[in-house]
Sequence to fold (338 residues):
Amino acid sequence: MQERMTIFCLVLFCLFLSLEIQAAENVVRVTTWGGSYKATYEKVAPLFEKEYNAKVEYHVGTSQSFMVKARQAQVDVVTNTILQSVEGEMEGLWAELHPNKIPNMANLFKVAKNSKYTIFANVGPYNLIYNSKRIQTPPTSWDDLWNPAYKNRVILYPFHSVSTTCLLILLAQQKGGGIDNIDPGLNRLAELKKNDNLIGMPPGESEMISLFELEEAWIGPLTNGRVKDLWDKGASFMKIVRPKPTFGMITTMNVVKASKNLDLAMKFVNFALGQACQEAYGKNNLYAPTVNNAKVPPEVKDLMLNEADMNRLFLVDWVAVNKVRAQWEERWNKLITK
Fold:
């Protein structure tokens, strides 16, 4: 009797183990920022889950935390920024994205095929937004951030962000420098802090939104999706201008090479490039599709980038930037604490 019970328990254990393994095989772990970005994923992901009898597990956090999870193989698909995607390429973190496994890659704009490891999922501009109640004359360029009238009213993204990195390199180029000679850009950016225009570089966009909403900040960069969040909160007084050159809020996608669920991860990337997901981000977040078969709502078309706009974005050599950006940040911290 005891022997039969032992065999029964062993069979039961194996059954549970099999079910657990099967369940794990049907889960794809995807990184995402919180707020409206995650909300859009959640609106369309049931289509993916139904088609593949799978579950999407969201890992919410910051771009830097996504990289930590990717290195530890705690996620399968990484939604991130171009800066971190290139960093991951340099570390050998990503699996190659095969068009035969991701057929929707055939619809990608040329500029969105960044490499064999990284694709652009959607693209939004870093707008220069301003409080129209406090600023009567609309700004026209990034240089307006240094206007003495905006003392204690300017905010920027964190120093390590794509937005501030692009601005830094642009400032350096305006003074004859560039990635190889960033000092002119660092000095110019530090003036924002020293002349008391810059009130902060919040680590999260939710904090930036709050500062704009409360009218503590009057001017600074913000992506389309987050501007929409502001408008949805009733802050219609925040207006958009798009200075030239335009910095791109490029949402990238990668598949973690160490993923134990590569096939399902590739299927999710293919889903993200499909019409349903692409059009959802256009409608809900004002982030432009990167495929040629997605439709843009006519009422927001002027707020979004098209393929020609994407080709004119201020793009930099992110491989070169990643090699030196830690040094830049160290020098920046010294400059603003002098």
